[in-house]
Amino acid sequence: MEKRVQGATKLLDGSLECCFVDGLEHRDAKVIYNCLRAYAAIDNTSSAEELFRTTVVSPLIQKIVPQNYAKAVAGASSDGLEDDYDQIKQCVEKDCKFILEISSSANSGLHVFDFLGNSILKEVLSSIQKGKPGAFSPGKPKEFLKNYKASLGFLDFLEGYCQSKSAIIKFRSEPAYTDFMRQWNVGVYFSLRFQEIAGGLDSTLTNTISPAGMNETQGKPLLLKQSLKLLESLQTCWSDEVLVFSHCDKFLRLSLQLISRYTTWLSSGLSARKASDGSPNSPADAEWALSIPIDDFTYIMHDVHAVIGELSESGSFIGHVNQLLASCPIEVLNLVKQSILQAVEPLKELLPAIMNVMIGIIVKKSNEDLKHLKGITATYRLTNKLAVRHSPYVSGILHPLKVFLEGERVNYLSEDDKTKLCRGSTDKITTMYYDLVSEVVTVARKTESSLQRLRQGAQRRVGASTDASDNIISDTDKICAQLFLDIQEYARNLHAIGIDAREIDSYRALWQCVAPKDKQENIEF
After folding, report:
1. What region holds the COG complex component COG2 C-terminal domain (predicted)?
2. pLDDT band at 77, cuts 50/70/90?
3. Under a CB-based contact definition with an 8 Å cutoff, are residues 66 and 80 in contact?
4. Rounded to the nearest 5°, which phi and psi values hold at 211?
């Protein structure tokens, strides 16, 4: 009986195939319906799907997607799929819709067929693999993403023919759908984008710090190429030309890594500048900070404030990211926002360090003039000179700060930062001033005390009176008188830049150190 059954089955299949193909060619809905009922009855849906693929779908697709790859490579066609999908959609709508409507009609019993996956999508995948295999290659990220998004749009188009949610689930579970999605190696695409974006920022950070041109900033509130590259890199991560929604968690992590890299670059440079030894042990990405002038740190301070503002809750970046992730639950959006805000915190913590470096540069320059103070001792020791006006070095003490405050780049600082810079610089300069004055006065007093003991001993040996020497103005008094004139002029210079010397603790100590006894109670200048 087995051979008879096989013969009968073969005869039935052949007859049914001829009938089904004839119905497809003539678009005879009744014939097609009866044939599909027969295929369903004998549990041979795959034959009907394959016949529809080879008879109707394949000739249409082959006209659109070139099957000769050699011709495609030679320039007959590119690896782009957008135009191909548009034509395929038209063909589906025109030449395939009829059988999709028949197989999905209510109470037809034909829902077991999946012409979307096993006929249309299967043929599309096969044609692309043969005619445009480069379309699946992530080696060209830009073209890959266009093709990937176009393919997702094509799948959405096909799913539009599904009559129910269960039909969509069934379509997505088909081997043809799984095979199609497997072709798109989004993981490799992300790796290439990671190298491109992170590598671009890293390359910019290792270059010498430099202001960006007007054509580069394009209205952005940034001054340095490094800062501009950071924001550009962050925006690239979430641009339509780069982002893959299914991998948005990885792009979020990349964004956080970019912020961290920028922060580390700044932190390393500030630490190297603070050490100020220029030793070879300094990290390679910190060398930029060893010799740049204070004006460049003004740019850095400005840019860090701008970056923090852009990445803050009120900035545009978080809003843009949340807008792209609007389909996610509110809990996810809050976590994304908090992760970005948390990544910015270490950058905020660098603001005082930047200010300290700027103050340090000014104080170091001022110290060069303060060193001339020690020459006062030689001027008045064992001489009859008396102080009549302040020393020349005084006018140079605050000169570096004045030059900076009168320059154009100070306008890039906020009023609050200007105040902090003035206050911090003058506090440190005054402290240094007090330390030097205290040292000079202490040494002068010790020296004078020693000389006085020697003089008194000599006078006692010869029986001379000491009264005459007691009325002579001592070297220490002459030095203190000169220093008193100096600190009064210094106070006036402080007042000229908006700083009240009486509010500086070290200035009050300075006054107490050199002021005459009758003037120590009230500071006047």
Report:
1. 182-487
2. low
3. no
4. -70, 150
